[in-house]
Amino acid sequence: MMKAKILALALITAVIVACSKPPSLPDDGFVDVPGGRVAFRVVGKGPATPVLWIHGGPGGSSCSYVANLNGIAAERPVILYDQLGSGYSDRIENLEQLARLPRFVEEIDAIRAELGLVELHIVGHSWGATVALEYLLTAEPTGIKSTVFVGPFFGTERWIADANELLAELPAETQEAVRLAVESGDFDSSDFEAANDLFWGTFGIRTPRDQLNLEPCEKKPSGNSGLYRYMWGPSEFISNGTLRDYDRIGRLPELELPVLFVAGQYDEARPETVEYYQQLVDGSKIKILPDAGHMVHLDQTDMFNSALADFFEELESGR
Asked: pTM (2 decimals)?
């Protein structure tokens, strides 16, 4: 009888302990969002506050981050997802109806509800920073412990001005190829393709491809250039899509939570611009990582992971 009581007590204790632990997140799956399903995956299993990661684009995917966030994922789950129309997620059949910034913002709440993300940090990279900012400004969310904006896009006019500043640093023939493409509207010429490759190799990803860990990207479905063209335009140098008049720079001072800005030394989101954004957000911090382009998580993987992990740990420890 005593053994039975001990066993029963042990079982009750086990149930109480199990119920008191937060449920573990699934490794991958799909979440229903307005317009279809988005694919997600989770890296990391630690007990610290989860991170929701929003990739760039429009029309990009989360694949380049999967194998390059080990430092951040050492202490916490990092939830990566492919926005609708991208990666493993459903494609967008009606761009006019569904390829809208407010709808992309709604994906965040759908993912939070599905995965039970009551408290979380949000990281937005490039266009992902746009989605994150819009979420903070329009959804009035609760439980957001901090936000990290990486190489952020907050205003089209400023982005194009920065692209032109960087273009002026490239050889004259490259500048001429871009000028001719912009004037003629022909962005399919070999000269423009070469110019675009040089621009991206200087200000996008500076590390040679054979030195990058991009295996997850080699397995994913192809990207969605149609979504990029519809919302942005034909190249980084010209925007004639639905985002052509986008600007939320003036609303950055409304943010009232811990914010970290991150950019690469050679980022197409120029450090001077990101420093200006940081000055608009009271109490925010900034990290400019050396010898890195826009894909700073690839050019300076260890340094990038340390910067974000330290930021999260400092907040959570109350230092």
From this structure: 0.90
225 is catalytic: no
CATH number of the domain within which 143 lies: 3.40.50.1820
Domain that holds residue 133: 25-157+212-317
The total number of structural domains in the chain stands at: 1
Lowest mean pLDDT among 99-113, 207-221, 232-246, 294-308: 207-221
Catalytic residue among 267, 284, 297, 299: 267
Q: How confident is the model at residue 25 (pLDDT cuts 50, 70, 90)?
A: confident
The answer to whether residue 167 is domain-embedded is: no
The catalytic residue among 64, 126, 239, 284 is: 126
The torsion defined by the Cα of 205, 260, 39 and 46, in degrees rounded to 10, comes to 110
> Is 222 assigned a catalytic role?
no
Please report which helix (H) or strand (E) contains residue 31, including its range. Answer: strand 28-33
Say if 252 falls within a structural domain.
yes
Q: Is 190 inside a domain boundary? A: no
- Picking from 79, 67, 116, 85, the residue whose alpha carbon sits closest to that of residue 305 is 67
| 121 among known catalytic residues | no
Distance CA 4, CA 93 (A): 62
pLDDT at 13: 34
Is position 19 within any domain? Answer: no
